[in-house]
Amino acid sequence: MVQHETIRPTTSRLNALPKTCSSNCSRSTAGGKLRLLGQQLTPDTPAVLLFVGGTPELAEFTQGLQKQARQRYIVALADVNLQTMLQMGAARSTPVIATQPVPLVNASLPIVRSYRETLARLFDEPPTPLSLAGFIAARYTYEVLNDVEGPLTRQSALAAFQRRANLDVGGFRISFNPQRRSSTYVTQSMMTVDGRLIG
Questions:
Q1: pTM of the model
Q2: Among 32, 115, 117, 157, which residue is least crowded by beta carbons within 10 Å?
Q3: How many CB atoms lie within 10 A of CB 127?
Q4: Per-domain residue ranges for the chain?
């Protein structure tokens, strides 16, 4: 594994800080420790940070970064919802880039159009990459179960999912590789310092 020279000292300083939450505490009761962690970053902490956590934790962490003199950029993983993060009072002074393994919610693929139409018909909420991922997963599940021959039982459903056939779900290709569990399809959305969402 290749490690950048600024990662080691940053990691050791972060490990020396108080832990944010014990294993038995809930995600929403971190007690401001993530905000404190954001405030305690030093000037030699890298400007681009990878955040591994959920939406509430990231919102709190950005509130601590708000008081930092150095501009930071945060790269968040697919389980962060930028719209929800803004509603939770995240600091808007820190740009956040959220990765997502699904198409952009304004893409013209048939699966995305179907998702937007269904969402508009059934719910009063804006389209998000997280709900699109759930929609695609549900459609994939439907397609796999629809192809089961004979009665649908626990055993036949399990056998169908173990086959993991490649499938085109409305223009979005799903294929599994047991040796490499990753996606070659990744897009990004960014929350700018003025709170706009791009992507």
A1: 0.63
A2: 117
A3: 18
A4: 7-101+185-198, 110-174
Residue 194 to residues 21, 91, 104, 107: CA-CA distances in angstroms?
Answer: 30, 10, 21, 24
